[in-house]
Amino acid sequence: MTASLLFTQLLNGLQLGILLFLLSSGLTLVFGIMNFVNLAHGSLYMLGAYFAASAFRATGSFLAAGVIAVAATLALGVAVERLALARLYARDHLDQVLTTFGLILIFNEAVRFVWGSAPVYMNVPAALAGTVNLFGLPYPAYRFAIIAVGLAVGLALYVLIHRTRVGMLIRAGAANGPMVAALGVNIRLLNTLVFGLGAALAALAGLMAGPIFAVQPGMGESILILTLVAIVTGGIGSIRGAFYGALLVGVVDTVGRAFLPALLREFLDRALAQAAGPALASMLIYLLMAVVLALRPRGLFPVKRS
Amino acid sequence: MSALLEVREVETFYGASQALFGVSFDVAAGEFVTLLGRNGMGKTTTVKSVMGMLPARRGSVRFAGQELRGSPAYRVAQAGIGLVPEGRQIFPDLTVRENLVATASTRHARGEAWSLGSVYRMFPRLREREQTLGTSLSGGEQQMLAIGRALMTNPRLLILDEATEGLAPRVRAEIWRCLADLKRSGLAIVAIDKNIGPLLRLADRHFILEKGRMVWSGGSDALRGEQALLREYLGV
Ligand SMILES: Nc1ncnc2c1ncn2[C@@H]1O[C@H](COP(=O)(O)OP(=O)(O)OP(=O)(O)O)[C@@H](O)[C@H]1O
Ligand SMILES: [Mg+2]
Predict the structure, then answer these.
(1) Does B19 contact ligand 1 (Cβ within 6 A)?
(2) ipTM of the complex in this document
(3) Under an 8 A CB cutoff, do A183 and B89 touch?
(4) pLDDT of amino acid B234
(5) Whether pTM exceeds 0.90
């Protein structure tokens, strides 16, 4: 185990964390403002990836694919929110979970119907096919670009949330939605806006994940679990919480999977380590979440309620 | 004089349990009215029914000639009702300035609209604490902020639910002085408060709630004369 390998894995973890951040930011805001559980958020990510893969193939331009994927997913997300989800805000969480779980099934089947069951492969854009030199270590340029784009989006979100009027309303709404409404703000509209933003960011994540993971039905569910862990760890409703939660989950998951089995072999019998290592590594983020919640029951950066 | 706010026979429920049994009252433009009654008699429920935060099941809530029962809270607020809620409900993660600006609106502004400048002139303490987070304020400062926040929506009617509760006498006096100024400026006001004394001086008319029903209404002089009433319904 060398320092350079650790460094590479840290970067990979960071890159997964960034993807998770793009997904968690939208989901956590909708949860924060409307107290709404949207399990179908992962489906928007999947649809974004499919739209991107098709658009990339059709246009040959990664940038155009990005614009098309984001616009299409945003439109679809807003339509779903208006037509189906907005009716559920007043219902309890069980109804919301059941309906959005139903949406997952519908979206997965729809994707199978349109694109087939086999994974769709998406190439890394030619301009980012090489490697970049980070402190003397070669690292894939595309993965590096994901990190850069994610940090830029994080910065833009920070400005939106902390420096604009809409951002004030989003923060106020997360703390006390009914009061924001009682002061004359159409909180439904605000939520649709936030939902649309979340859908666009999910599509961006789908676009960027396309060349790394296989684009296939159900790809939204595995990442949804990680996203939920990131949100809960960071503190529901908080963008900052989503950011640090996502990076933490991304890094711990990636580095854990890379090094825990080897680490265990130092201490345990070889066969036992062989069996326990991967299992333990995949549990690591849940352990992380449990520890964080034991110390801070409402996550790392809880939203104050009034 | 036709009423600015006219509440008629409102019945409101918490689930299956009825809290208001045909509540009626009205407020004329520029009038200062109180809702009185002991704990749990339905004052806050009445306010929430008017605001659409807790939809009334029956009755009517007319404001400036427009029926508002069944409208969502944001439409009621947009029609020109400003709320200073029970418990202040300042947005904790927003600074004082952000609390004032976030929901501001000049939709109904007549003449000079409320602005940060005019709110800070009314409550100079808020200007000093402009960049402080809402929750770091003292109770009195939070109350001033809640009033300023409602004024920034430029309402035609201001509703204050227990605006002086838990405040030091000096701060209370400041709030009463502010309400007197607001009344003089022509703003209609509905105040709920347990301090009857200042309200008898400031308000034009009073409505007393008892177990979800309006049991008395009348002017300050009439209420002063009703010692038995004050004792029975208000415990003073
Ligand atoms: N969320 C609720 N669920 C069920 N019942 C409620 C709820 N809120 C209030 N009530 C009941 O409705 C009645 C009226 O309550 P309300 O809060 O309107 O009284 P109030 O006059 O504002 O009292 P206070 O002076 O204590 O603020 C009370 O009997 C109360 O127990
Ligand atoms: Mg009350």
Answers:
(1) yes
(2) 0.94
(3) no
(4) 79
(5) no
